[in-house]
From TrEMBL:
Source species: Clostridium saccharobutylicum DSM 13864
Cofactor(s) needed for function: pyridoxal 5'-phosphate
GO biological process, one term: glycine biosynthetic process, by transamination of glyoxylate
Record has Transferase as a keyword: yes
Keyword field: Aminotransferase, Pyridoxal phosphate, Transferase
Modified residues (N6-(pyridoxal phosphate)lysine): 191
Aminotransferase class V domain residues: 30-288
GO-annotated molecular function: alanine-glyoxylate transaminase activity; L-serine-pyruvate transaminase activity
Protein family according to the UniProt entry: Belongs to the class-V pyridoxal-phosphate-dependent aminotransferase family.
Protein name: Aminotransferase
Residues where substrate binds: 336
The protein's Enzyme Commission number: 2.6.1.-
């Protein structure tokens, strides 16, 4: 199961020092107060990467838990919630909003471009009576990146709280939680942070905390209730046994980012994404998006006569390489290059591009160019 080359927009490659960290002897995370300090320190390091002084909690469960917990904790029956939708994850927030009794109202954009901020602004002039809005930073099935620096600031001027799914962006794309007024920012261990799957982290602003505390009705459920984390540090108490090895691995992965330097990590992503997009265009393929390109994942259109699913199967069979397509309705249209986290390394992206190049040509695609040669041509120093 483990000998294939896997190159997906999450879970991403996990560096050896992170894997080894999880093998270390642990203490008892329920009763050893040193672990509370360790946990808090990991949270603060994540805060540095996402530029916030807000409280951060690491929850035991992968990214979806964070999304549901945010909606569960602030939604009350009848609350109007603006669901900003230009992708599959964006659209999906409606389910969580409604599950907890909210009324979801869509603001939808085209799925091949970023949210148009002027249009959103005009929409909000007419209707801004929302308790909160949800938005996805990078909608991974298409790789579209939304400009949170404008969108969240705009929503904030109307007093609308913001819940941001940055699971597949943070760690690979800049996110300035405090400057951009993001009330709840959600991340996951297995994407650009390149730690194993299993943890989600949530930053919560003072305003969002107030909204959760001043609810008229209690939060339904326990596991998704963010209020239970409020006093963990003061009380030296966790709501449940924290998967300590997972947190130790995450801490190592976070430290890897800080050791390399957040700026350097972001520019590594940018250079690789930029060269990948340019190479694809000149090679004769089309990108799925018209704009709003994320530096963490690139979606390319596989020629119709080949089909993305056939290409994926062929690459796995002939090259022992798993490069994945997208979700419905794009699963036979899009191939996704997940150059995020530890995948955003030259030796890995060039290997992946070579396999894609060979796979396409095996299946009849005609180009007198080579993807990796083009990638190298466009790669900036
Ligand atoms: C990966 C991802 C999540 C978490 O979902 P998984 O079930 O771990 O795939 C949430 N939001 C986005 C945008 C993601 O890319």
């Amino acid at each position: 199961m483990n000998n294939k080359f896997v190159y997906a927009p999450g879970p991403t490659d996990v560096r050896e020092n992170v894997r080894l960290e999880r093998a270390k002897v642990t203490t008892n995370p329920d009763v050893d107060e040193e672990f509370v300090e360790f946990y808090k320190c990991t949270c603060e390091k994540i805060g540095k990467i996402i530029n916030t002084n807000n409280s951060i909690y690491i929850l035991s469960g992968e990214g979806i838990l964070g999304l549901e917990a945010a909606c569960a904790s602030i939604t009350e029956s009848g609350d109007r919630v603006l669901v900003i939708d230009n992708g599959i994850y964006g659209r999906g927030f409606k389910d969580f909003v409604e599950m907890y009794g909210g009324e979801a109202i869509y603001f939808s954009g085209n799925y091949d471009n970023e949210i148009n901020v002027d249009e959103l602004s005009r929409f909000l002039e007419k209707d801004h009576n929302f308790k909160y809005a949800t938005i996805v930073h990078c909608d991974t099935p298409t790789g579209v990146l939304n400009d949170l620096s404008k969108i969240c600031v705009l929503l904030n001027t109307y007093g609308v709280l913001t819940v941001v799914d940055s699971v597949s962006a943070m760690g690979g794309e800049e996110i300035r939680v405090d400057d951009w007024k993001i009330d709840i920012a959600l991340g996951g261990s297995q994407k650009a942070f390149s730690a194993p799957t299993g943890l989600t982290f949530v930053s919560v602003s003072e305003k969002a905390k107030k909204a959760m505390e001043n609810r008229k009705s209690p939060v339904r459920g326990f596991y998704c209730n963010l209020n239970i984390w409020k006093n963990y540090y003061k009380d030296k108490w966790f709501p449940y046994t924290i998967p300590i090895s997972d947190v130790m691995g995450l801490d190592r992965a976070v430290q890897n980012i800080l050791d390399e330097g957040v700026e350097n990590v972001l520019s590594r992503h940018e250079k690789i994404a930029d060269a990948t997009r340019n190479a694809i265009n000149e090679y004769g393929l089309e990108l799925f998006l018209d704009g709003g390109y994320s530096n963490t994942v690139t979606a390319l259109k596989v020629p119709e006569n080949i089909g993305a699913l056939k290409l994926k199967d062929h690459m796995l069979k002939k090259y022992n390489t798993l490069i994945i397509t997208s979700l419905e309705p794009y699963n036979d249209i899009i191939l996704r290059i997940g150059h995020m986290g530890e995948n955003a390394r030259l030796e890995k992206i060039t290997y992946a591009l070579n396999v894609i190049d060979n796979g396409l040509k095996d299946l009849g695609f005609k180009s007198d160019k080579e993807l990796v040669t083009l990638f190298n041509k466009y790669l900036k120093d």
